[in-house]
TrEMBL record, chain A:
Location of this chain's protein in the cell: Mitochondrion
GO CC, one annotated term: mitochondrion
Biological processes, Gene Ontology terms: mitochondrial ATP synthesis coupled electron transport; respiratory chain complex IV assembly
A Pfam family reported for this protein in Swiss-Prot or TrEMBL: COX6B
Native species: Piprites chloris (Wing-barred manakin)
Domain of life: Eukaryota
This protein's name: COA6 factor
Keywords, in A-Z order: Disulfide bond, Mitochondrion
Automatic annotation (TrEMBL), chain B:
Organism: Piprites chloris (Wing-barred manakin)
Annotated compartments: Mitochondrion inner membrane
Family label: Belongs to the SCO1/2 family.
Name recorded for this polypeptide: SCO2 protein
Keyword Ubl conjugation on entry: no
Cellular compartments per GO CC: mitochondrial inner membrane
Source lineage: Eukaryota, Metazoa, Chordata, Craniata, Vertebrata
Domain of life: Eukaryota
InterPro entries per record: SCO1/SenC, Thioredoxin-like_sf, Thioredoxin_domain
Residue span, Thioredoxin domain: 27-191
GO molecular function per UniProt: metal ion binding
Gene: Sco2
């Protein structure tokens, strides 16, 4: 099978742009992905699948990090009790 | 006045001592002291000896990298540009070594690196040669599982190494350092070399 060439600079920039637009949409809709389906499709079409996975993980990480910074760390047992 | 000059002297002294401590720590790690055998983007064999006599800013990465490698390369090359603008400083050789030799052959590397700095060079090799080179710098490398297309990402340490003209690692910089900080640090090393 032919090896896929790495994305060129233009392709990288297009991918990152699509990702940023998708993320901006998520930001303005409280992370409701159902409100951003079109941008999600554009994002997936402009980026290699491996990059989509990588950026999805990154978004999750950034959200988790923000949560830690604003809410602080809640150990699992304490969160269960109320 | 005199107090200002005294304070400046103390600050420089503190910087110098911090740099000495760091150098000692890096030497103790024996970072990057092993030789390597790789090839540049024109297929010419290159070893450690080819780097002697120059300052080098070295980054390990791969061309299929989603964001980190282009960002770190931009930063590295920006630092080189900043240093080029300072009269009287020796030139810095920007260098990229792939951690993904299976896909990053000489041609692929050449295409990728063209977009950054005109003097940016790249090195690749066999899987064994690259493994040895990364190992010499204690750079962690781990290829992830391939997707149905055969595409994969390579998890790796994100570090930029500064090598002195004697070939030894004089400093290493992580993701959080800016291009300006890199340039300032390199300049400090050059001036105290």
């Amino acid at each position: 099978a032919a090896r896929m060439a790495a994305p060129t600079r233009e392709e990288r920039t297009a991918c990152w742009g699509a990702r940023d637009e998708f993320w901006q949409c998520l930001d303005s809709h409280g992370d409701d992905a159902s409100k951003c389906e079109k941008l999600r499709r554009v994002f997936e079409s402009r980026c290699p699948q491996q990059w989509v996975k990588h950026f999805d993980k990154r978004r999750d990480f950034l959200k988790y990090k923000k949560k830690l910074e604003t809410e602080g760390y809640i150990p699992p047992e304490a969160a269960g009790k109320s | 006045g005199l107090a200002g000059a005294g304070w400046l002297y103390l600050r420089r002294e503190k910087e110098r001592r911090r740099r000495q401590r760091r150098l000692r720590d890096l030497r103790a790690l024996a970072l990057g002291q092993g030789d390597f055998q790789l090839q540049d983007t024109s297929g010419t064999p290159r070893s450690r000896a080819d780097l002697l006599g120059r300052w080098v800013l070295l980054y390990f990465g791969f061309t299929h990298c989603p964001d980190v490698c282009p960002e770190e390369l931009e930063k590295l090359c920006r630092a080189v540009e900043l240093l080029e603008a300072v009269p009287g400083l020796p030139p810095v050789q920007p260098l990229f070594i792939t951690v993904d030799p299976a896909r990053d052959d000489a041609a692929a590397l050449g295409r990728y690196l063209r977009d950054f700095h005109p003097r940016l060079q790249g090195l690749t090799g066999t899987a064994e040669q690259v493994r040895a080179a990364a190992g010499a710098f204690r750079v962690y490398v781990s290829a992830g599982p391939p997707d149905p297309d055969g595409d994969y990402v390579v998890d790796h340490s994100v570090l930029t190494f500064l090598l002195g003209p004697d070939g030894l690692v004089r400093d290493c910089y992580g993701r959080s350092r800016t291009a300006e900080e890199l340039a300032k640090s390199v300049r400090g090393h050059m001036e105290s070399y």
